[in-house]
Amino acid sequence: MPVALMIFLFGKPTLVSFLVGLFIALIGEAIRIWGVGYAGVTTRKDCVDAPFLVTGGPFAIVRNPLYIGNAITGLGFVIMAAGAAGIVLNVTFLILWALCYFGVYGIIIPHEEEFLVQTFGEPYKEYCSKVNRLFPNFKKYPNPQGSFDPNAIIQAESRTLVQFAIFAVLMGLKILPAGILVGKLFFS
Questions:
Q1: pLDDT tens-digit series, residues 46-104
Q2: What are the CA-CA distances from residue 71 to residues 31, 41, 160 (Å)?
Q3: What letter does residue 84 receive in the DSSP assignment?
Q4: What is the pLDDT of residue 46?
């Protein structure tokens, strides 16, 4: 949230940066939704949990599709804000995005993988030998398990979708004349 707040406060979207960034952010959110549809509501728990090993859908091509989706969404918002922000702010936004992404997931991913090895043992190790952690391998996993559940999206992603919409609308307002006026009053 602190990085998102900084990007909102100091970002200076133009129509082009807003539309390009929104398109990229929507791709990230679509990947996330696809992953949540397979992984289910366990993605929103405060502790690591997995009732079964999911290897179907996006998990058949990359082990952490939700985190890939988060990275793409975050990058989309950085691009959205970049428009007229200037090189120093744009580089700062990118550095903060990268530090946040790699810092958080550099801790979470090993923790989750340790849990999955302990929980699923050899089947998980076999899965890891065929599917990359963060770089998609489009040669799908040969034994996909799990199915897409649209109800999981409603249960697990509604808060994320609301936050996404609010951030996009607020950034969009910054490129409108009223948004420009409000921005100048508060942030100049």
A1: 555 567 899 999 999 999 999 999 999 999 999 999 999 899 999 999 999 999 999 99
A2: 10, 20, 14
A3: T
A4: 56
Are 36 and 152 in contact by the 8 Å Cβ rule? The answer is yes
Predicted pLDDT of residue 143: 85
Alpha-carbon distances of 9 from 102, 144, 173, 186, rounded to whole Å: 23, 43, 12, 9
Residue 118 CA to residue 146 CA, distance in Å, equals: 20
Q: How far is CA 35 from CA 32, 156, 158, in A?
A: 5, 11, 14
Q: Give pLDDT tens digits for 90-122.
A: 999 999 999 999 999 999 999 999 989 999 999
At 116, is the secondary structure helix, strand, or coil? Answer: helix
Do the beta carbons of residue 30 and residue 68 sit within 8 Å?
A: no
Helix count and strand count (H, E) for the chain: 7, 0
Query: Residue 112: what residue type?
Result: E
Tokens of 13: 């979207």
Tell me phi and psi for residue 11, to 5 degrees.
-65, 150
* Residue 24, token pair as written in the block: 């990229």
Q: Following CA atoms 173, 34, 160, 110 in sequence, which dihedral angle do they give, to the nearest 10 degrees?
A: -120
The predicted model scores a pTM of 0.86
Measure the CA–CA gap between 148 and 40, rounded to whole angstroms. Answer: 9
